[in-house]
Write a structure and sequence with these properties.
By secondary structure, this protein is mainly α. Helices cover about 55% and strands about 5% of the residues. The strands form two sheets. The chain has a two-stranded antiparallel sheet. A two-stranded antiparallel ribbon has the order 3-4.
């Protein structure tokens, strides 16, 4: 384990040490290390115990480890799937003016009956993300938050994605850590209230 050599800082790491140890950029290291409360920083500001660094880096591997991201985090996959879905819906709407050979119109099934708690979670996520310069979440996550915050209709496919994301990402949610991207992203998708509603809605529709 790389660490700064000094009798007073034995067992401690700086951001530079973290960069060297994990092969990441300073910006990545600063974003992750910022999650360690100041009261836990040792010796002087921005020095961290190896144990704290290891725990934090493991918890937030998706923010820096490309292999972990590729194997475990589906955000980018979801973003591509979402783009394909939106494109297919646009095509369907364009063709629904009877230019389709079948002459049938395409109606997109959507719902707005999610509770205020879901809307409020999305609004809170947007506010919290703004406080950290909107560094958290994918574009799809940010768009989803705007939809939910404004009470706009969402499709069954979107509800499925909400349930999928909120189920697998719950482990990264910590209501006491308002700066963590895991917490912010979770709220942008509706939070725990969103997970409960999505699960209930999918069961109601026979989709789960």
């Amino acid at each position: 384990m790389t660490q700064t050599k000094d009798s007073e800082t034995e067992g401690l790491m700086t951001v530079r040490d973290v960069c060297a140890e994990y092969g990441i950029t300073r910006a990545q290291a600063v974003n992750i290390m910022a999650m360690i409360p100041v009261k836990l920083q040792k010796h002087r500001a921005n020095w961290f115990t190896i144990e704290d660094v290891e725990k934090l880096m493991e918890r937030h591997r998706r923010m820096w480890d490309r292999d972990y991201f590729a194997n475990n985090d589906q955000d980018h996959y979801d973003e591509e799937q979402e783009a394909e879905l939106i494109l297919s819906q646009i095509k369907a709407v364009i063709k629904s003016d009877k230019r389709r050979k079948s002459g049938k119109r395409t109606e997109l099934e959507s719902y707005t009956d999610y509770p205020d708690a879901v809307k409020n979670n999305a609004k809170r996520g947007i506010e919290m993300n703004a406080e950290v310069n909107n560094k958290c979440a994918t574009e799809v996550g940010k768009i989803r938050a705007q939809q939910l915050a404004q009470g706009k209709p969402i499709s069954v496919e979107t509800i499925k994605r909400m349930h999928s994301y909120l189920s697998r990402a719950e482990e990264y949610y910590d209501e006491n850590d308002t700066k963590a991207c895991g917490t912010i992203s979770y709220l942008l998708w509706g939070g725990l209230a969103g997970k409960r509603w999505a699960e209930s809605k999918l069961k109601e529709l026979g989709k789960l």
